[in-house]
Write a structure and sequence with these properties.
Helices cover 29% and strands 15% of the residues. With 262 residues, the chain is of the alpha/beta class. The strands form two sheets. The protein has a seven-stranded parallel beta sheet with strand order 1-4-5-6-7-8-9. The protein is globular and about 45 Å long.
Length: 262
Amino acid sequence: MSAYSSIEWTDATWNPVRGCTKVSSGCAHCYAETFAERFRGVKGHPYEQGFDLRLVPEKIADPLRWSKPRMVFVNSMSDLFHEDVPDEYILRVVRVMAAADWHTYQVLTKRSDRMLDLLSSHLLFAAKLPHIWWGVSVENRRQGLPRIAHLRAAPGLVRFLSVEPLLEDLGPLDLNGISWLIAGGESGPGARPMKEEWVVRLRDQCQEAGVPFFFKQWGGFPKNRLGRKLDGQMYDEMPGRQSVPVAPGKVRLSLIEAHTAT
């Protein structure tokens, strides 16, 4: 778990799974893969195995040890619903999120069909917890729009869309049941361009539907060159963050012990 994150829409990251595999157009220039592969073969580094997918059970209890409430991006370097992550392991991770309820969790996936299946069955107990937000990545119409349909069908309370990298005009969106939308262009070497009219259309649809809109970046390389302003202003809207009393120290320690033992 990283105490601080440079990602504009979160406070911290938590990676009980590391590594992933490409599944769609949005993965072509994966920042996480680029970062992880730089350390392949570096003995003792968390990414000694590069971007190969692996479980990191020693990280599962991390949120229980954090006393200060944070917005936590879950698996910024992987996908919790990857096909090679066992159901039982996902259940352990989500139980920690349910227990450490003084944080707010942002769970983002491209495997929306599996998330729908699990939220409708094994994870139903956590689906409607207000401090766990369930989201899908949406980069284009062909691959991204079906994920929105899966998300809307899932029994989640707080649902969000990460429209990044935005690779084309998505057209009209059904935002019914969607609590938040993040939009952004691709960054890094070889970044694919994003047109302003695509972003404006998203913003306007969010405003019409009453959905908080967060504009992350124009992208490009370096990504800070073009900034984060749209029509001359910043859009940092978010759903209302939950305010949950922090569990007393002794209770938190007992939770850590219980979840470490499972």
